[in-house]
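Appendix B, Record 12. Input sequence as logged:
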Amino acid sequence: MAGTSVFAELVDEDATVFKFYSDGEWKRSSSGKFVSIINPTTRKTQYKVQACTQEEVNKIIESAKTAQKSWAKTPLWKRAELLHKAAAILKEHRAPIAECLVKEIAKPAKDSITEVVRSGDLVSYCAEEGVRILGEGKFLVSDSFPGNERTRYCLTSKIPLGVVLAIPPFNYPVNLAVSKIAPALIAGNSLVLKPPTQGAVAALHMVHCFHLAGFPKGLIGCVTGKGSEIGDFLTMHPGVNCISFTGGDTGIAISKKAGMVPLQMELGGKDACIILEDADLDLAAANIVKGGFSYSGQRCTAVKVVLIMESVADTLVEKVKAKIEKLTVGPPEDDCDITPVVTESSANFIEGLVMDAKQKGATFCQEYKREGNLIWPLLLDNVQPDMRIAWEEPFGPGFTCYQNKLY
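Logged structural output:
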């Protein structure tokens, strides 16, 4: 794929290991080490990425700091022009990037294409909104403050923070990366991207689209590697002026270690759907299944618990069960509704929640079934507060809990 396309320079000579991006160039790490990316479907190594060193991180951040000073002086219209160009390139090369998403995170093929296209749209949106918002300033007179005369004036405008560290999650490694990259760049910041291991290659392809658009060298950097080697080093680096993170519990650790650096955190959730007696139950069932099973439930916004009035609970459960039976289960290449979860450890965690609920008396509306990382959709009824799945986020194929008679 990458070796025969515009993305050829992302890989080394034998097309086995993807490079990292520093100072406008694709480079191999001096460590000589790499990180394997496992295909969730085959559970075999699909790609390899560089295991960067702390010194390489230093160089990326230093280049970003230098490039940011000039970028901050670049007119808004020119920043927007480059972002629009990157968006067009991203959408033009949606197929090979989507292929990476299918193989790295088992996202269905059609949804992978959609992620790349809407990522391009988001970049263009940020460019337009940035020009509008950042182009505005405020002119104030000083007599609005007690004791002041109308002899002084104040002009305020927004200024960039500096170097932004962006850390997106595995489930939307392109879309949730550009949602950090585009706002940072249009605002005059430089950007250092640390993609997730699963999804890193798709993110590297996305970064190459920004490279092809002609952004200044050093303004964007992308570092891959082991969290144990560069994770804390990145988040605690004195050259970082802002951290934008999307993920789970790791966000707590980052917030404790980052000091006074501004943080933007988008973390997990236990999203509830509340069904009252006068609800349209067919409409509710359709949206519960869509909300709970889209991308196999691996979304922070997925429906994870449904609270139902007892008078309509049994009827709704039957309608949801009927819709679950129509879901297709299998590989992402076949555009199945339910595909393998991202890692074996994720599958094990989900199974642990299910077994805990089983031991404590939850009603299983389907037989629990698992093959490797592939877990069949399951609906649990009569879930009680002492069950882990009532409160912990499963991040799996629709382990939507129904708690009736409790509310």
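The first strand starts at residue 17 and ends at 18.
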